Amino acid sequence: MMKQLKKGVFSWKSNQLRLWNELATLVLVAVVFLVELQNNLDWIKGTLGFFGVAIGLMIGIKIYKKFRSKT
């Protein structure tokens, strides 16, 4: 990405960058979850919670995209 920016050519779309941002957020949530709650919850609940957060973020992105395109 940095090389593309230096050349003045940038092929990434805003949705792709937003997904990278959300992926980083999911990794952060997963790491904090594993470190803090590993002894209190079993792994099935943790996995379901992780996927719940991922699905919630995806839905939020879709809603934001529709809201943004209307304005």
Q: Care to give the gist of this entry?
A:
The protein is an all-alpha fold. The protein is 82% helix and 0% strand. The protein has helices spanning 2-7, 14-37, 43-70.
Give the helices and strands, then pairings:
Elements (H helix, E strand, L loop, with lengths): L1 H6 L6 H24 L5 H28 L1
Helix pairs in contact: 2-3
Shape: flat
Termini, distance in Å?
29 Å
Uncertain runs with pLDDT below 50, 5 residues or more? none
The number of helical runs is 3
Amount of helix:
over 70%
Largest sheet: none
* Count of discrete structural domains: 1
Number of strands: 0
**Structural Rg:** 17 Å
Please explain how this structure is put together.
This protein is an all-alpha fold. It has one domain (12-70). The protein contains 3 helices and no strands. The two termini are 29 Å apart.
